[in-house]
Fold this protein.
Amino acid sequence: MVYPLLLWDFFKEIMAHQPQLSGKIAGAKHDFMWFLIIIQVLFTGVIFILFIFLTHKIAGPLFKLKKHLSNIRQGEPITPLTFRNGDHFMDVAEEVTLFLETISQNQENDFQYLNEVATYIENLSSVVPDDKKPVLNEISRRLLDIQSRYKKSL
């Protein structure tokens, strides 16, 4: 049975049969080894650089998303979320922006309704007996607290 020869075994066979070529083969073997080492170093460098770019295109948007949400939580106004050209997760930025706009619009609608309720309670207080006015005042105060709390955060 014949087994496939490895490259180094091939070199040994040639050097054994052709002793006059052994110097050239040893030099070629040495040169080939250096060629493989250089190719491996270049390949490793290219892969390293590609992974740096790839990880930045993933980690950058996630960092920016986290910072954007943190800024909104700390009371800064809602602005559209944008990523750099070529970054991954562009669809996430669009969806977060739409989500925040929806929340903001719903909040404005709720504030309008709360203002109407506060006006209604204020008008009602003129016809309610004096013993019930503290309850209406408490409801009005709580409505104002709710509005002020959410106006700070969003």
